[in-house]
Amino acid sequence: MSIKDFAPELTTLMAAFEEQLREVVRSEVEFIRLIEEDLVTAGGKRVRPRLVFLSSNALGGVPHAMELALAVELLHSASLLHDDLVDDAETRRGKEAAFRKYGNAVSVLSGDYLLSRLMALLAQTGRMELVAMFAEVARELSEAEVLQFQVAALGEHSLENYERIIDGKTASVMRVACEGAAVLGQAPFHLREALARFGRLYGQAFQMRDDYLDLMGSPEALGKPAGGDVREGKVTLITLWLLERHPEEVGAILKRKAREPEDIPRLRTLAVESGVAQQVEAAIAARVEAALGALRLLPASSARDELEALALGERVRLR
Amino acid sequence: MSIKDFAPELTTLMAAFEEQLREVVRSEVEFIRLIEEDLVTAGGKRVRPRLVFLSSNALGGVPHAMELALAVELLHSASLLHDDLVDDAETRRGKEAAFRKYGNAVSVLSGDYLLSRLMALLAQTGRMELVAMFAEVARELSEAEVLQFQVAALGEHSLENYERIIDGKTASVMRVACEGAAVLGQAPFHLREALARFGRLYGQAFQMRDDYLDLMGSPEALGKPAGGDVREGKVTLITLWLLERHPEEVGAILKRKAREPEDIPRLRTLAVESGVAQQVEAAIAARVEAALGALRLLPASSARDELEALALGERVRLR
């Protein structure tokens, strides 16, 4: 039996993942089926299950990696369904947001259905430590989403709140994807810590890039108009730093949620001219660098190389 | 050491429950705190934790009954928070529905926060079988709630759908409250089965009574106007049977969701005159009777007597 039996190629794993995901979310209730089919066929990049499989392979393969991969993706999908209400997002993964088609109610309850499937998958792993980890991640995730709402409602914008939000919303899920594989493989402490750190730092870089591109990206690449966060009253790293440099002008734009047609172009120009855009790019690059540092604690393998390539892909430089 | 050390009185347990519930739902995020305080202080009858403690005591006391009691109540509370969207309920436990105060978004995400606390409590019991059971109950619950929405939207009214809905929405949670205690106590199969059957039948009677009173109860006792379900397009046992007897008149009222001021009084009169009200009362009494039959398989105890009294309290007779 070769190592391949325990650690199949990523493409093989991802194909099996798509098939199993379809199985896992199947419901006898028609309205749930409509929502889930949407989620499943819409696809998305499946970053979180990729992290699970690569972490598993970097450890030589771990039992129940598939259940973990499905569980992290379901947590993410449920949070999208529950977050659509908050976001009032025009588009989600390039498709009309689920709630516009079927109503908020069915979206929320279908999200709950996914969470029930997540619990069943965790039970199948037989590892109570993983149940406890997911409970904590689900707590961080819901707290961060409420905090984001609270910060927007009360204008409590600060670097500290921004970091709490990206940690809870994104980095915590990415971390459990990587660290969870180590738990399933009963990996030694230093390898588990390395994967946990990698996942968390990678997740921070991932969300920071997403937030940066929301303002600075091209509408074509984004698949939606730039500046969506500003229009929703969400302040991210780039707007926080812009606010420090140009408190009056940027403050006024944020306050009116970029209602004027020239507001978003103006923020983009200011970001480049003041050097804030480059500063954010550097902050992302620093997270990527730290993530790579954590990876180096793992033994060399092609899976480790792929994790490295994933992280390097989060660096951004627009000009 | 007496039996009392393992199976304290219900009042003692319920007081400890209220205290622990407050601890468990505490969050550092202010907006979550607002919602949870509302839920905690609003109280409610705490029927589900009562079932846990009485089932535990009927078995002589089981380990982790408190965690189970908290978990079933949190599942119920989360489902109220997620269901407020569906219901558009005017009142909930006599208080303004949470979502009217703080918005749908925070309600949904605070419900998710409660679900994360539920998972943590289940992990604390150390019993993976309980995690798997809750996963199934959460599935049934979300499926039933979506089904209820689907049935109202598509007019798929039938006795079969009504039974699926009350089983999933209410009976499944009541069942896990009772059966879960047996799992924690590693009770012999026949006692576990007896508690599972009791919980399910009790839950059916409980929901059937609730639905019956929604149309037939006095607004004073209900704390809201009668006929709320009809106005929301929900068909329950009494309206299903009324529809069979008077397809045209009742069909027209249901179709216009009792928009005319005389519609609800007319349904009430028809229900009594046609004997449908009495028929529903008898159906509820039959469930109670069957629940008592299941209870008799347990050894005699004061906790068993209290479970019996709870079930007898679900019988209803208005005239």
TrEMBL record, chains A, B:
Keyword list, A-Z: Magnesium, Metal-binding, Transferase
Tagged with keyword Protein biosynthesis: no
GO MF, one example: metal ion binding
A biological process from GO: isoprenoid biosynthetic process
Domain of life: Bacteria
Entries under Pfam families matching the protein: polyprenyl_synt
EC number(s) from the headed UniProt entry: 2.5.1.84
CC cofactor: Mg(2+)
Family classification: Belongs to the FPP/GGPP synthase family.
PANTHER family: ALL TRANS-POLYPRENYL-DIPHOSPHATE SYNTHASE PDSS1, GERANYLGERANYL PYROPHOSPHATE SYNTHASE
Name of the molecule in the record: All-trans-nonaprenyl-diphosphate synthase (Geranyl-diphosphate specific)
Organism placement in taxonomy: Bacteria, Thermotogati, Deinococcota, Deinococci, Thermales
The gene coding this protein: sdsA
